[in-house]
Amino acid sequence: MTETPLTKPEIDAPEGPAPADLQIVDLVVGEGAEAVASSTVDVHYLGVDHDSGEEFDSSWSRGESVNFPLRALIPGWQVGIPGMKVGGRRKLIVPPAQAYGTAGGHPLSGKSLIFVIDLLGVS
Questions:
Q1: CATH classification number, 23-122, choose in 3.10.50.40, 3.20.20.380, 2.130.10.10, 3.40.50.150
Q2: What is the mean pLDDT of the segment spanning 105-116?
Q3: 100: pLDDT strictly greater than 80
Q4: Is a pLDDT exceeding 90 seen at residue 16?
Q5: Ranges for the PPIase FKBP-type domain (predicted)?
Q6: Residue 120 DSSP SS3
């Protein structure tokens, strides 16, 4: 996995079963403003399916970062981003219950997901 913010990360296919709980790993610790639960964040991110290693979404692939109010995101991001500082890169391994649910109407329901997130700004 690359650990340099501002370049698209690469995620190696994980081995073994997905963790049952949200995993938060700082790959690069930022030195800027800190995200809090009420923040709107400007991020670059890459998302892959834990089991297959297949990329399902990436702001990098679209060529631009995205702004989200944290409260509008999946629970794994609502818990996993606060405390992160601008300039940082964090990996989140998100179980289905904190992603798109354990079953139902979303194509990613029932899947554990891995995200690598670069925090570019906070407001």
A1: 3.10.50.40
A2: 93
A3: yes
A4: no
A5: 38-123
A6: strand
Structure tokens that stand for 16 in this block: 């073994």
- Mean of the pLDDT values across residues 76-102? 96
Contacts of 94 (CB under 8 A, 6+ apart): 22, 74, 76, 77, 80, 112, 113, 114, 115
Q: What angle do CA 107, 24, 60 make, to 5 degrees?
A: 55
Give domain limits for the chain: 23-122
What size, in residues, is the chain? 123
Plot region of 110 (φ>0 → left; ψ -120 to 50 → alpha; else → beta): left
3-class secondary structure, 119: strand
Map tokens 């790959």 to a residue. Answer: 27
Residues 119, 84: Cα–Cα separation, whole Å: 7
Q: How far apart are CA 11 and CA 84, in angstroms?
A: 20
Token pair listed for 111: 């899947």
- Identify each DSSP E strand in the chain by its residue range: 23-28, 40-49, 55-58, 66-69, 89-94, 113-122
| CA nearest neighbour of 11 among 96, 88, 113 | 113
